[in-house]
Write a structure and sequence with these properties.
The protein is α/β, with parallel strands linked by helices. Helices cover 44% and strands 21% of the residues. It is built from six helices and eight strands; from the N terminus they run E-H-E-E-E-H-E-H-H-E-E-H-E-H. The strands form two sheets. Strands 1, 2, 3, 4, 5 and 6 form a six-stranded mixed β-sheet that branches. The chain starts with a strand and ends in an 8-residue tail after the last helix.
């Protein structure tokens, strides 16, 4: 059966939620999916999968270092296999040019140009933050385009789940094309 690796890095957990949702969509189409937090996993071998989706969130203007390192180490496999990348940030909600710039920096740093890329809005989890971080994030949200929420008594999720589903379904179409008509069907 076709097996897809969803390898991700997360700081506050929204990218993990997106990775799990991606796996659910993959499974709903009759394929297998394995979700792996890159920071916690060792010796992940993308070559043992039929396709790979990598995801990372942005903090302080950069993707997680362990994801960048994973991509650098696995670039040859990512180039050989059907692969895709998703980036999670608040910028993806209101400043897609900035969000795309983060992906371009990843491509420059790793020399991996994923065939399919998606930008997903992240989350402001005010109720999970300590006092100082809550107020710093409120100030950042106030100054950013996209109308980010500043009521610190609640959380805001900017992920567009229908967009995530479409990204996965488009990736599965790419996978089927790469494997030849019909050969990516669930077995």
């Amino acid at each position: 059966m076709t097996n897809i690796l969803i390898a991700y890095g997360t700081t506050e957990g929204q990218t993990a939620k997106i990775a799990e949702y991606i796996a659910d969509v993959v499974r709903s189409h009759g394929f297998e999916a394995e979700v792996i937090n890159i920071e916690e996993a060792h010796d992940v071998a993308p070559d043992t999968y039929d396709g790979v989706i990598v995801g990372a969130s942005i903090h302080m203007g950069k993707h997680e270092k362990h994801v960048v390192k994973f991509v650098e180490q696995q670039r040859d496999a990512l180039d050989r296999l059907p692969s895709a990348f998703f980036s999670v940030s608040l910028s993806a909600h209101g400043d897609t040019e900035e969000a795309q710039g983060y992906v371009e920096q990843l491509e420059k740093d790793t020399r991996w140009v994923p065939p399919r890329v998606a930008l997903f809005g992240g989350a402001l989890l005010y109720t999970h933050y300590g006092f100082a971080k809550r107020h710093i994030m409120k100030r950042i949200a106030h100054d950013r385009p996209g109308g980010l929420g500043t009521d610190t008594s609640r959380d805001y999720v900017y992920t567009e789940w229908d967009g995530v589903r479409r990204f996965v379904e488009d990736f599965l179409t790419d996978l089927a094309s790469a494997r030849g008509a019909g050969s990516a069907e669930p077995s």
